[in-house]
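Example 3.2
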Amino acid sequence: MATLTVPYNTAMQLGSGFNSYTQTLCIDHAVVRDSELAIEVKPNIDSEKHVAQSVIYKTSVIDKTTDVTDNLNVSGAFSIKYDQLKVEGNAKFVDTDKIKNSDVSIMISVKVVNQSIYDHQLLKFQPVSGIKDLTAQRLIEVYGDSFISGWQEGGEFLAIISIKAKNREDAQTIVGDARMAFTRNKDLPENADKKDIKVDLDLRIDKLKKNITAENEVSVSVTWTGGGQRLKPGE
């Protein structure tokens, strides 16, 4: 069975049933450990062993709100419940109308994964006694179509920058400038004087960003999970 990644919820427990379509929790202990069928997993006794960390940085232009939900692993059925996207611990994250009404929206994403931990002994389905006439629909309502099998340790930072031109005649120019300023390729030609070109290019890009943000309507929405308590010193 394929493993799906969904946003963390403090109510989640190992073995809890889960509806992957609506991304809602179902009954606890839907799946339990089976010591007879479980595969023996040897514990890692080397506590000082280095854990490889995966870091993914991405900046992209988004055309629709589903680009954001896909990045957050939030299903459309879940996000449609809210007029605004909602992320655990951050209340209302981004106003979907801002994305729809802007001329261009930039998504900046940083994902860090330290390790994934699974309980390989969760192999036994545990039905609830007393439930009769368990149709296929009722089965999913009670138990879900999947279960919580493990956790992913790490963190994620996500920012949405929505830009709307004050002068409608400059809208297309703003879109092009924003694409170049926020999503440019940082790789330089192999035979180029990389130091001089990089300094000159960085200065031009910085000036371009300042012009975009100073002369147009800009909305910035930020959210993070995992280790975000130090992002704002003093709070």
